[in-house]
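Quick one: Ubiquitin-activating enzyme E1 FCCH domain-containing protein from Rotaria sordida, structure tokens please.
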Amino acid sequence: QIFCDFGQNFKVLDTNGEDPITEEIVDSISHDEIGVVSITTYTKHGFEDGSYVTFHDVKGMTEINDREFKITVL
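--- reply ---
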């Protein structure tokens, strides 16, 4: 076993220990002050209020790429 202590300032954002979703599930994103993301799957995505997401390779809204967002599930 390996134990790593990253100190008191280290933040753990993972709430369930599962691997992150890395597939393409974004269908559209509204361009409002508070963006609404529509996904392409009807299966349970596993996100919950307070989860953090990071977008990569988004076309058309490149300003959100590689940024972290705290979400609310609608």
